[in-house]
Give the backbone structure.
Amino acid sequence: MNDLETRDSFREEIGIFEQALTDVGGERRVAGVNDIFPLIHRFVPGMYCREIFMPAGAVMTTMIHRYEHFAFILTGKARVVSEGRGDEIIEAPAVIVTKPGTKRVLHILEDMRWATVHLTEGNGQVATKAESDLVEIEQSVVAATFKEYQQQLDHEGGQLCLG
């Protein structure tokens, strides 16, 4: 199987997994708008930090990350499956680099706090934003679907990059 077939197979499997979660009574939830996955947002000029709490036992998928950024595992432990890195256990304290196009499946083994840091200006990414533009900032750093992410790549003339 070549890299493209592997990528497409992984993406198809994530879609099937997400549907299975819904079929067994799971809910499609957006982090931060419920009590289960609360978010803390922090801002400094040119940067946005997003910290999420995920309780032990939670199983979830992430959005698709548009740009490379740092992720800091502050507390906890999780089994993480992703296209570029396969199946691994990530445990705090840890620092990882998220590559563009990354989507993960997480099974939280111990209560976890995970923070990501995103540029909000420069590097051809997001124009300067204020705290009040949180929805716009979030939409600029993640994509809901691989189709949406591919449209961005086509528009920017980029290529999918997974680490």
